Amino acid sequence: MTKPKVAFYWCASCGGCEEAVVDLAEDVLAVVDAVDIAFWPVALDFKVSDVEALADGELAASFVNGAIRTSEQREMAELLRRKSAVVVAFGACAWLGGIPGLANLSSRESILEFVYRGSPSTSDGDGVRPQEETDVPEGRLRLPHFDETVRTLDQVVDVDYYLPGCPPPVDLIRSAVTALVEGRLPEKGSVLAPDVALCAECPRAQTKPTDLKVTQFRRPHEVIADPETCLLAQGLVCLGPATRSGCGAPCTAANMPCTGCMGPTSRVIDYGAKALSAIASLVAPSDEEAVGEAVDRLVDPVGTFYRYSLPASLLHRRVERDAAGSRGGGQGWARRS
Amino acid sequence: MPEGGLNPKAVSTDGGPRIGVYVCHCGLNIAGKVDVKAVVEFAASLPHVTVARDYKFMCSDPGQELIQQDLRDGLVNRVVVASCSPLMHEATFRRATAAGGESPSHVQMASIREHVSWVTADGDDATEKAKALVAGAVRRVALHEVLEPRQSPVRPDVMVVGGGIAGIHAALTLADAGKHVYLVERETTIGGHMAKFDKTFPTLDCAACILTPKMSAVRTHPNITLWTYSDVVSVEGYAGDFRVRVRHRPRYVREDLCTGCLACIDACVHKQGKFEDEWNEGLSKRKPIYIPFPQATPPVVVVDREACIWFKTGKCPRTCVDACERDAFDFEQTETFDEVEVGAIILATGYRTFDASRMPEYGYGLYPNVYTSLEVERLLNAAGPTNGEIVLRDGSRPRTVGIIHCVGSRDAKHNLWCSKVCCMYSLKLAHMVKERIGAEVYNFYIDMRTPGKGYEEFYDKVLREGVHMVRGRVAGVTDEAASPEEEGHLVIRAEDTLIGSVRRIPVDMVILAVGIEPQPDAQEVRRLFNVSCGSEGFFTERHPKLAPVSTFTDGIFLAGACQGPKDIPDSVAQAGAAAAEALAMIDRGHVTLESSTAFIDDAACSGCKTCVGLCPFGAIAFDEDRKKAAVNEVVCKGCGICVGACPSGAAQQHLFTDAQILSEIEGVLEYV
Question: Which residue of B604, B645, B658 is in closest CB contact with A196?
Fold first, then answer.
């Protein structure tokens, strides 16, 4: 009997998701036992041509991590989609855009300008930027196109399931693979994690008062947090109330507030807006000036509340307007189905 | 058959939505700008729309009948009314839809008057905008769920906040109707500004003679609990069931024992008054123990803690205590609190007068003989600092008096509004000054505003009495004489617009007719009772014409000058109206509750408690065993705060689900 074939692939990501697969430890043997890995660039020496050679739909599943920023990533996502029965967006970047998605606060041009000219560690030299096509004596070199906007996987191809997390928790990976092998997959479009927020599994939850009001927000380096009390009650911006559970709350167990990598529940359309309104509702002062002072202590609100989900937000990105008011920057993106 | 074309389509039989779109002309309010026929034609082309009609006034009986007939005929089962804002007529069309046999929640309004025709310059733009809003409403109403209207009982007691003439009248009206009233006044006595006046225009009734019987009626009425020297500190709940917490400040004299014999005041170690008497606008001195005026209600003395030697030093023979036959003193008194449950609240928190020192050109505070009108009311009052004698600060009688109208009012630098009462009370003061001391009186006015029963006649009478009228805004008051006859006088410089020249008129006394302003803490009071106010700070009525004493918060009503400048007759009339509204609500026995309540998806709730403390109505309870929050939908008012705040989308609201809101937005944007 032939085992189902699966592929792992990475797009705009850090490699942590690959690491999470390795973190399955000896359970990875069970995975290898149950499936044939047909493509996994980080670990196994298959070529794109090997994937191209497969019949459409021949892969039982592709696990794609990372956001989509370049033409190469887009092409690979499309290829894997064509060859797979099931595509799983693996991790926060593929699902919501993740940390690379924060690049949507900048334009393509300003990124290239900074990286190849402006950054303090760059020697200006002759200001040459990589070109998509460069002729050298050996022939023509090609680089992928660098898109204006970072997109989520499902803004580029149809996605069947989502595994949340940065990276996805091992338990969730294991149960997803098991469900796949056993053919017990839930409704298409599901996020393969509990659909309730983190407080449900945070041991500190019972110490949270019902009438919590925060007078002063603090950042983790400004305070040695009590290890048992609700972190929000200590003024730390913990996004647990807005974030899916299923991770086992390792961050709050390590005395660090939740930063929201597990993303929103199914009922929430814009994670950052929801998290922001929940945190804002805790602000103690009621007069405008004091409210202003309190919220001014929330440094980098976009980076805090949209840390993992800017491309998936309702606004997607910062839009720049020229003096005439017409919209520059940005480009179209596929609608989420 | 009313006008309006029928565009019937094949009625779907699959149980899906059959949407009727009804576009209102609102006379020319909408039709004058929006091409109503084009909107109807467009609406008829939208998916699921089976009927689209227009009518001159959709809210009229024949307009509503159009909708009901279509419902009865089975042509439609959802209704979109494109007309005014939902605030105006949503209730009307929900009722009409219910009468047509359909759930009242199957209605959605597109506000094409307030949001379109009234605010859009170009007719074509307006028509396009109206189409977009209709497209959004059609998309949204298709997703509306069936909700049954709910009712809640009303508590029979009423709270009246503020014990001026408006509050007194409202309290007595309600009490006479058999309702129990809690009257809360923050000063030590009720009576308000009216109790400071001597006579009232235009009839020249003695203010005390008509007011004090009402004050004592309040005190003795079995249905009134009078709390003076008290203020409201918190309000919870909703129409029909408010829980109000009231703070009572210590008088250091027991209200149940003091009879107002005033023996303690005579006995005080201070032989003379030494402290500014607020009641007399600082024109006299009082002792640390005092009563504002003889008919103060309740007639209970109060100790000024800041001034009393016992409180300041702990060393005083306390002759006051010895003088008290009733043993009423209690220097250990502290603040106490009461919490009461009432069905309705009437706000009658009054006004303050414009601070004349904000206009230094008139010399108030600089020249001793420049007075405010309220100070002169006290001078004229027989119970005032001079026992009714009009004398200057040096004890002499003024021979000429200038009254400057519109001080702080109708002035772009201060208050834009007309304070409404100043012309009439300035004429009254002119009359009284002339009558009492025969002085020459000059009134400086911008326009003479005397609409009101008997008011113009009063003006005419004062003119005949020989009061001089100078039409023009006063530039300033100075004591610098420009001629020998000005020596030793104050000089009022004004342009006389009727003769077209600048005049300098020397007078002995200047009276500034200060205008009416919102109370300084109007903003805090507004927040406390959850009512709104205009940018100037007067509380906003629900509708300027048709709901003048209601507010946007059900069960809270307005009376008197807290809603805008008013004279005594208007304040009393409004107080009666507010009492009638409260009575109507109480005697109906129930209030209809908003059906678009919030609810929490139990399985989705993570127990994060974000919502619990936010609910202004205390409608959310947290179950510590199950670690879940739940909304008590009877108490929920549908304000949506918990829904907005719930970080995981577990709290949702009927008729405001994300799906409904987004479908509306998509409908609008898709058309745009």
Answer: B604
